[in-house]
Amino acid sequence: MARDPRYDSLFEPVKIGPVTAPNRFYQVPHCTGMGYRYPKSEARLRGIKAEGGWGVVSTQETEIHPTSDISPANEARLWDDRDIPALRAVTDAVHEHGSLAAIQLVHNGLHTANRYSRAVPLAPSDVVVDSDDPVQARAMDKSDIKAFRRWHVEAALRAKEAGFDIIYAYAGHDMSLLHHFLLARHNHRTDEYGGSLENRLRLFREVIEDTKEAVGDTCAVAVRMAVDELLGTEGMQHDAEARDVIEALAELPDLWDVNLSDWSNDSQTSRFSDEGFQEKYTSFVKSITTKPVVGVGRYTSPDTMARLIKKGQLDFIGAARPSIADPFLPKKIKTGRVEDIRECIGCNICTAGDNTCVPMRCTQNPTIGEEWRRGWHPEIIPKLKTPEQYLIVGGGPAGLEAARALTQRGADVILADKADTWGGRVTLESNLPELNAWGRVRDWRVWQLQQASNAEMYLNSSLSAQDILEYGIPNVVLAAGAKWRKCGQGRVHRKPLPFLDQTCVFTPDDLMKKGVGVIKSKAPVVIYDDDRFYMASVLAEMIAAAGHKVVFVTPSPIVAAWSENTLEQGRIQTRLIELGVEIIPIKQLSGMDSGAVSLKCVYSNQTQTIECGSLVLVTSRAPEDMLWSELKGQEACWSDVGIKSVMRIGDCLAPSLIANAVQSGHAYAQAAGYDEIPEVKREDYGRV
Ligand code: ADP
Ligand code: SF4
Q: First CA to last CA across the chain, in angstroms?
């Protein structure tokens, strides 16, 4: 298909110093959880981004020296020449598709405790590191500053040797030494590197100049800088010091890549921000420099992208998450397939991969992180040798993805759901406060299925084991989901609680399906959260907004503890406090009596009783496995009726993240037609 001429501007080449990007799609540096530990996976992932049309493809942050060791996170490394081949594999994979390869060099300064190398952390001043490690950094003296400048030059030369076209000096996210020198709260020096802004930016300027001198003949030198930290006068602000920094260095680098700091501000989830949320902070940069400017903001709409270029607000559309959710986003715009873009939902399951030190995963794109080890491709999936019929029961994320990928493989698919809308839990959850974008998981898949001639889709179709046996469709896939438990069983309470008064106990399913109106009592609503991710906090918001007094009880020391991995914990806790939700941490349930619940400290035997008109339990989910049990009970007659296999996928196998349900559906479709599940390759780091 021909591309819409409105988007022509997005495909113009742009010069960056001595190199030229083939278009305006710029995959900014982002972590993958692979880095130096999984180099083949890393190279393949970046190569696929280039194949998908990103004109510039960057690495994640790349440590330049053992004093910048962010173990156990899997970032990239250029500590010495031995790290060059792994990065050469990345640039080769990117160049194969005509894109430019960029590398973000970093010294983590006071952001790391150097857990592996055990080097003493370095910082502008004598301060504690910003992780929880009981470790301090030492103030760099002049010889340390000289050494750091040399390490940066050596790393830049290695990056050039590895084939990179764009080399970054990085002053962002409160994670880099150059940023630490810039920021008055970290830099307490009294010499020419501290005090006035001119002094604090001296090292930044020197490093940009050093890098240009070392590699600037053939490589572009980019700067990544946070122009606001959302800390008010405590931090860098876009309309104060950040403007002065950019004015002072305006023409020095070949490209400005500007964003917010820290990472939780830069990668805000859709629950807390909309597409383009950084514009008000970054839009001033173009008016100060003639050099190309890259900005991000979870852009997935080509209209918005074209508007930004037309307005002269950006030269490149920067993206991390939209390029993860759909590595082929640029190519889809280029070939007039805008409807096929798989839009990022802004959930940050991708950041959770990096934050838990494993290769990334994505709710929308089940192939990310699996390109090398499973050989999965985001757009291509081999056809079945012998197309067969598949019956999929349940059209939630698992069933929809299995159906979509199976139709892509050429199978005849019948998808049935007892509900009157598609999407299962995704539809229910996307109706909760601020989770609307999650509906994209459903919408993209339903759209793809509607385009396929080999998919039949039936809503309002509750299937029983008898129905399934009567149909006799050879391959049966159960994707019936799970339901929230009403008995309190979860992490802390491993068995059902005997004392619950079921007349005033509610689950997330009750609230999502019937609305807050199910809560009739005017007495306080106690939400007991042992799930520790987003659900309880979203319900707390919803119930508080309906005018109820809400008490949030959790065995954890903080609200929604796992959401630290999705960079949301601080915002969630703040929002609940601002809504007047009372938070009672480190408590488990120990009793329930008319109008009250008793709580027990998880450390001691101290107890307390609080008023409770309604109790909402957010603890764990039970798989919907009745169909499975019934069918299993009749396994002996499967072959008589023509059934070859019955499999469970997604939450009805084991309740988990939406991302895992999608991945489960995709894995089923990938394995279909093979006698054995295809081998998962290993990168045997550490094997002798
Ligand atoms: P998952 O996350 O594993 O995809 P969901 O709970 O989101 O699970 O979706 C499961 C879907 O299965 C729901 O839409 C539900 O209506 C549907 N479903 C459950 N049991 C049946 C059944 N017996 N027949 C048809 N649809 C079913
Ligand atoms: Fe977007 Fe979520 Fe995928 Fe991250 S995991 S890229 S936020 S859809």
A: 51
Q: From CA 314, how far away is CA 59, in angstroms rounded?
A: 21
**Binding-site residues, ligand 2, Cβ < 6 A:** 321, 324-325, 344-350, 362-364
Q: CA 237 to CA 483: how far, in whole Å?
A: 46
Contact 100, 165 (CB under 8 A): yes
pLDDT by residue (tens digit) across 587-600?
999 999 989 999 99
Residue 332, both tokens: 């889809």
Atom in ligand 2 nearest the alpha carbon of residue 352: 5
For β-strands 455-458 and 293-295, DSSP reports them as unpaired
Q: What span, in angstroms and rounded, lies between the C-alpha atoms of 563 and 576?
A: 14
Cross-strand partners of 223: 169, 256
* SS3 letters across 68-100: HCCCCCCCEECCCHHHHHHHHHHHHHHHCCCCE
Strand positions, DSSP E, 96-171: 100-106, 122-123, 138-139, 166-171
Q: Are 399 and 477 in contact (CB under 8 A)?
A: yes
Measure CA 325 to chain center.
9
Residue type, 305: M
Distance, CA 416 to ligand 1 centroid (Å)? Answer: 9
Give, as one character, the DSSP assignment of residue 497. Answer: -
pLDDT, one tens digit per residue, over 70-93 is 999 999 999 999 999 999 999 999
- 186: helix, strand or coil: coil
Q: Which residues of 48-68 are buried (b: 16+ CB within 10 A; e: fewer)?
A: bbbbbbbbbbbbbbbbbbebb
Contact of 347 with 46, CB cutoff 8 Å: no
This prediction's pTM: 0.97
The CA distance from 187 to 189, in Å, is 6
Decide: 602 and 587 in contact? Cβ < 8 Å.
yes
Determine contact, residues 613/525, Cβ cutoff 8 Å.
Answer: yes
Site residues for ligand 1, CB cut-off 6 Å: 393-399, 416-419, 424-425, 461-463, 479-482, 624, 627, 650-652, 661
Q: Say how far apart CA 540 and CA 141 lie, in whole Å.
A: 51
Average pLDDT, the chain: 97
Angle 440-446-452 (CA atoms, 0-180°, nearest 5)? Answer: 140
In whole angstroms, what separates CA 85 from the centre of its chain?
Answer: 28
What is the three-class DSSP state of 678? coil
Q: Alpha-carbon Rg of the chain, whole angstroms? A: 27
Distance 346 CA to ligand 2 centre (A): 5
Question: Do 590 and 598 contact (CB within 8 A), yes or no?
Answer: yes
Which atom from ligand 1 is nearest to the alpha carbon of 652?
3
Q: Could you read off the pLDDT of 510-545 as tens digits, one per residue?
A: 999 999 999 999 999 999 999 999 999 999 999 999
Distance 633 CA to ligand 1 centre (A): 21
Backbone angles phi, psi at 31, to 5 degrees: -70, 155
Alpha carbon distance 279, 420 (integer Å): 39
Tell me the DSSP string of 321-364. Answer: HHHHH-TTHHHHHHTT-GGG--------HHHHHHHTTS----SS
Residues belonging to the chain: 688
Q: Which amino acid is at 287?
A: S
